[in-house]
Amino acid sequence: MSATPLRMMQKSEFINDRPEEVLKSLRELLETGIIRQKELEKFTGFSAATISQVLNDKYEGDTEKIHLRLISFYRSWIAKNTIVSTTIVDEIHALMTLAWRRKCIVRINGRFGGGKTKAAQLFCVKNDYAVFVPLSNSESPVSILHRIGEAIGISNLTGSVQDKLKTIVRALKRNPKMLVIDEADELKKNTLATLRYLWDENEEYCSIILITTSRFDSLITHPDLGYLQSRIAITKEIADFSKDEVKKIIDKWDHKLNTETINRLYLWMIDNFAGRSLVHLMMTAHDFMLMNGKKKIDDDCIEEALTYQSTRKK
């Protein structure tokens, strides 16, 4: 993640952006590959050719409607991707700094959607020595080594698994790194064992951050993982957002919600997998605001969004 998306993700005052400012930001997002043309097409309902003409100030038709849809997309994107400064972010960053100094394995554990991943990604953006390794639950020992190799700048890993490990170990000794492994509890046991072996061979030059949920508790005790559990120097349990932090998330949208409704949303969030669900709910409420021709999210928009979310679960 480069400085460009970080700057945009940290932006918070977006409600009053003028169309020309939004179009400039959208062009930048498209040019850097952060968003894709298809996302704009799907959201706005306009063709790629029309969107391109509007973004480049060459569209000769009425731009009011498409400007409104592009602004709506941009606001939703910013609200979804903005990193709110919370105690969770501060705790995770302090822990990752400690892990780097000690060159140890650290587990950051918490509920799905609690903000662990975004906080870790932000740390990686701010610190060159930290690399975020995007993975999937289908990663084999070989594929995870290739992912790590790509993350630390090795474009071509060859040979056996042992050869690949040795190549990565040598690279880390030349240029020590912190490897951030997201959703570690989704990985196969032999893949996690490969991470343990990598650290065993390189513990003076490498720290590993394992981002997990409670599912990792049963996985970590499996015999195939050897001594991975004993290698984890620190485990940090990440708590839920506070009410003040929930209000920070809600305030990313233009609204006129009272304290009672915000408290209700806080309780709803606790029951619905933390911050990510709240962001999705507010995006849905924002859509209902637009459909109803309102200028701010009100209680009716929230009710419609809650009803829509509960219907989707059935």
Q: Can you characterise this structure?
A:
With 314 residues, the chain is an alpha/beta fold. It has helices spanning 3-10, 19-31, 37-44, 48-55, 64-81, 87-102, 116-126, 141-151, 161-174, 189-200, 216-219, 228-231, 243-250, 259-271, 274-291, 299-313; strands spanning 105-109, 130-133, 177-181, 206-212, 232-237. The protein has a five-stranded parallel sheet with strand order 2-3-4-1-5, with helices on both faces. The protein is globular. It starts with a helix and ends with a helix.
Spatial strand arrangement across the major sheet: 2-3-4-1-5
User: Residue ranges: pLDDT <50 for 5 or more in a row?
Assistant: 1-16
Biggest sheet features: 5 strands, parallel
Task: Give the end-to-end Cα distance, rounded to a whole number of Å.
Answer: 36 Å
Count of beta strands: 5
Please report which band the strand proportion falls in: under 5%, 5-15%, 15-25%, 25-35%, 35-45% or over 45%: 5-15%
Helix share of residues? Answer: 55-70%
Task: Give descriptors for this structure.
314 residues; alpha/beta; 5-stranded parallel β-sheet; 58% helix; globular
Question: Could you give the topology of this structure?
Answer:
Layout: H1 3-10, H2 19-31, H3 37-44, H4 48-55, H5 64-81, H6 87-102, E1 105-109, H7 116-126, E2 130-133, H8 141-151, H9 161-174, E3 177-181, H10 189-200, E4 206-212, H11 216-219, H12 228-231, E5 232-237, H13 243-250, H14 259-271, H15 274-291, H16 299-313
Parallel strand pairs: 1-4, 1-5, 2-3, 3-4
Helix pairs in contact: 2-5, 5-15, 6-7, 8-9, 8-10, 13-14, 14-15, 15-16
